[in-house]
Amino acid sequence: MVSTTMRVEDQPDLPGAARHTFPHDLDVAALEPSPVKAAAVDFSFYYGSFHALKRVNLPIQEKRVTALIGPSGCGKSTLLRSFNRMHDLYSGNRYEGDIRLYPDNTNILDPRVDPIEVRMRIGMVFQKPNPFPKSIYENVAYGLRLRGERNRSTLDERVEEALKGAALWDEVKDRLQAQATALSGGQQQRLCIARCLATDPEILLFDEPTSALDPIATGSIEELIHQLRARVTILIVTHNMQQAARVSDYTAYMYLGELIEYGQTNQVFLRPQKQATEDYITGRFG
Amino acid sequence: MQQPQLVAIRTIIKSNKRWDLLFGVAGFVALMIGVLTFAALFAQMAYNGWERLTPEFFTNFPSRRAPQAGILSAWVGSLLVMLVTALAAVPLGVAAGTYLEEYAPKNLITDIIEINVTNLAGVPSIVYGLLALGIFVYAFGLGQSILSAGLTLALLILPIVIVATRESIRAIPQHIREGAYGLGATRWQVTRDHIVPYSMPGIMTGVIIGMSRAIGETAPIITIGALTFIAFLPPSPVTPEFPWISFEWLKSGFTVMPIQMFNWTSRPEEAFQQNAAAAGFILVLMTVAMNAIAIWIRYRLRKNIKW
Amino acid sequence: MSDSFTATAQPHSLTPHTVSERLAKKAFRNLKERTIETILLAAAFVSVVATLGIVWVLVSESVHFFANIPVHDFFTDTMWTPLFSEPRYGILPLLLGTVTTSLVALAVAIPLGTTIAIYLSEFANPSIREVVKPFLELLGGIPTIVYGYFALTVVTPLLQALIPSLPGFNMLSAGIVMGIAIIPYVSSLAEDAMRAVPMNMREGSYAMGGTRFQTAINVVVPAALSGVLSAYILGISRAVGETMIVAVAAGMQPNFTMNPMEPAQTISAYIVQVALGDLPHGSIGYQSIFAAGLTLMLMTLAFNILGHLIRRRYREAY
Q: How would you write B139-195 as a 3-class SS string?
């Protein structure tokens, strides 16, 4: 297996960017390198005639959390939703370039690749928790049933495992047959995470998973994401910079459809290389 | 993901997609049943009744000899009944709808009215016939006349007109009203000068749909005692001398198109079946035309008005 | 000229004469507004009056009827023969006729209507919908007498080719055509309910690799359940109240049976039969149609209330 790591110095140098150093020389501990799980390669996206993403090149490290940050409208959600071909559900959208999934080097965006197959390998958690109008058990079992699993005891096992993995088991183990909509917002979101985990996805996409939740629920989800990176690759979009700083290993800053800067989170936040990045991080604009 | 897993997933996906395909076919078949019914209905009546569709068909009275039987009394009756229905249902329905949208406070009386309107929409048409028989024909003494029939059908389509009025009025954005009120207009002035004119196309759509429903109604009209075999026309509404308008026709006996068709359908002779087919063909043409006009108005409305 | 910089500045042209004119105009305008409002309220109240009218007519004539015919006999006698020299007034044959034809109709309308609704909401692209929806509206606007004619002259012969023993008048043919006539109502209401389900819910299923069919069955229909059930209740109400299709195609003979291959008469068809004849006002035959109508109304009312309760129980808040 070929492993590649993308290092801070290897980033594409955009024209007109200036290097900037902080007065303090902070010791930025380097992460242990891991293989690249997926990568956007010269990826562009159009909503009709609107050029929403402009030649994005972004690696996603395996079993790490990568965060996409940037102001409203910068294209981070658009980029995220391209990873599981969600844009295919709506008409008028166009992909250009590749998004490659490793180790089989499949181009997710290839029209010959079945979007359903992509979605069976890559899971997604949404901004507004959207549990199915079913029981808690059936919500988690849904993905397994889609994959043809019928055996009751296997389902029981996998459901329990997934709920434990989402830190929800203790709260719901006595009421698995209750309607999922009876849970609180934070619990519903953890349920949505559990149903994704049940199917062992290769990548888990999070689209602003805590913006609809209160601070306590947010905290528990962030804690969960931190734990989950040991078993699954995570790509998370967040409009909350502090959340990105808390939760992610790598951060990508986007602005107006372009990837401005990418690197280890510590480095991007403490020693950003582009003026634009620093402006956003220090709150010069929102 | 490893290759064997990928292969397993691809097989499952294929089997899942088969259900998709099956349902797509089922949906198409279900739609085709509707299309085929419509086509068969139309074609059969056209084919069967073709011989009868002559100008004389429209100007002949019903007769015991099928080839000479025509729909004169029927279509004139339908026209006159529709006139009464429209004159009763439109002002009533528009006024009621306007009240409910623009004037009604949130209290018990308004709730009661709204529940009743919803209720009336679900009452079987034969029960409207019973209502008319007991009240219009006997209690009010209006007799088995065009007036009774018109009022009955007006009540029947009243919920349709009310709902259409309410929905059109609801589509008018608040800032239009505020603009008018801001200039010092009273509630009635705003309603009369702005709300009703702007909602007219939507209201018209509802009225046309209601009328097309009324034209085809048979059961309530039979119940109040429309005649099934009449060889005369009601007196004309316009007279040759002063005061130029007569109301005698309102009290007259009459028949309508659907009843004439029913009468002919009930006869075993093949020849009368042809008459029935011809009458049905014309009836369907009329209702389809009216519905199509209403749909077209609604379509243009959606495209043109941008608040 | 008065100085108009004070807080209580008055319009320049104000005189006592003008004031009373203005007040008078305002009072008149108020009176006019009030009157108009009352007129509009009266128009809206007509619907209440109509309901009361229906109740009064049905109940008062039924009371006369039940003065002569014991209620117990009415609901348990198995023969409905009001025109015989020894008339019997058991509503059961008519009730069974209504129920059987309605069941056949619903067996057609509910599966087909739901399938069409799901198909239009989840599968069809917008251009197909633009064509199909108006067409379904046209289908629903065809007069029922025409459907009755169609049942008698086209469907019955077709069925007789498949089932040679089928009589010329039968409930199967009437029921099937009734079902087709009801499809547009069921499908349109059900589809509206399904389209109201937000895309966010569907995306959850699609993101897990679900197909359109799986998403429709597992997410959309359960989420839209309240509206879909309402559509079914509407279908039931229409089936029960339907008159002309059965009057033409099912025969006019009351028959104590639930076998759709036989002819029978429904409650509403009976009323039409009596109205076609000549029954003197006040006779027991005349009153019987109101008793029959009351039974019909109670059935429809029961379904409406059921529908209301179902909507309350399953109301989805998005």
A: HCCCCCCHHHHHHHHHHHHHHHHHHHHHHHHHCCCHHHHHHHHHCCCCHHHHHHHHH
Q: Of B52, B70, B87, which residue is a domain's last?
A: B52
Q: Structural domain of residue B22, as residue ranges?
A: 3-52
3-state secondary structure B15-70: HHHHHHHHHHHHHHHHHHHHHHHHHHHHHHHHHHHHHHCCHHHHHCCCCCCHHHCC
For A113, nearest residue in chain B (alpha carbons)? B10
CA dihedral (A66, A253, A117, A48) in degrees, to 10, reads 170
- Structure pTM? 0.86
Model confidence at A2, pLDDT cuts 50, 70, 90, reads very low
Q: Can you give the pLDDT at residue A13?
A: 42
What's the CA gap between C102 and C242, in Å, rounded?
Answer: 9
CA distance linking residue A84 with residue A88, whole number of Å: 9
**Interchain CB contact of A133 with C (< 8 Å):** yes
First to last CA, chain A: 41
Delimit the domains of chain C by residue range. 16-68, 80-314
Best probe of the A interface among C202, C203, C208, C213, by most A CBs < 10 A, is C208
Cα A58 to Cα A43: distance, rounded to the nearest angstrom:
9
Q: What tokens does A242 get?
A: 């502090």
In a shared domain, residues B121 and B153: yes
Q: Is A251 on the interface with C (CB under 8 A)?
A: no
Mutate to test the interface with B, among C110, C244, C295 (most CBs of B within 10 A): C244
Chain A contact set for C316 (CB, 8 A): 133
In C185-214, the residues whose Cβ lies within 8 Å of chain A are 200-201, 203-211, 214
pLDDT tens-place string over residues A202-226 = 999 999 999 989 999 999 999 999 8
CATH of domain C80-314: 1.10.3720.10
The whole-angstrom separation of Cα A56 and Cα C282 is 87
The alpha carbon of residue A153 is apart from the nearest alpha carbon of chain B, in Å, by 20
pLDDT at residue B245, as a whole number: 76
